[in-house]
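Propose amino acids for all 152 sites.
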């Protein structure tokens, strides 16, 4: 089974593809949104590309690392992209997907309270994922989210 985890930022959507049986990362990549696109066209671009990735890799389960509701300033662009991703997942052939904040993602992957942040910051590694420190913070979040999707 292959899963995907996604971490959204306004200008780049980071995703990680995970092969559950081998407990291996297949791909970690960023989808950059062209700046010349209007908001509706940018959202369409994201939707189409994510659906292509799901088909290309044969993804069966997915997860999105969503915005924490306790954040002081919510990023409107990020929320719009997260909504479009949910719609794309709902209209795809995925068996299941989840939306996760730190607590729910940690629970899905068996991390103790506070360990999520240590893994993201790089002061702790996550499972036996190779080259953990070579990944950016957004990539680490996407990887952990992809592993959590195994239990979606």
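Proposal:
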């Amino acid at each position: 089974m292959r899963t995907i985890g996604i971490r959204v930022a306004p200008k780049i959507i980071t995703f990680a593809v995970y092969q559950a049986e081998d407990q291996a990362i297949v791909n970690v990549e960023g989808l950059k949104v062209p700046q010349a696109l209007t908001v509706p066209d940018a959202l369409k671009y994201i939707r189409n590309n994510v659906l292509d990735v799901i088909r290309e890799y044969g993804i069966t389960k997915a997860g999105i690392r969503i915005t924490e509701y306790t954040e002081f300033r919510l990023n409107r662009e990020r929320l719009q992209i997260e909504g479009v991703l949910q719609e794309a997942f709902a209209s795809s052939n995925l068996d299941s997907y989840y939306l996760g904040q730190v607590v729910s993602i940690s629970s899905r992957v068996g991390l103790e309270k506070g360990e999520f942040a240590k893994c993201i910051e790089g002061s702790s590694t996550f499972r036996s994922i190779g080259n953990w420190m070579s990944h950016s913070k957004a990539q680490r979040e996407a990887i952990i989210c992809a592993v959590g999707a195994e239990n979606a």
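The chain has a mean pLDDT of 93. The chain has one domain: 2-151.
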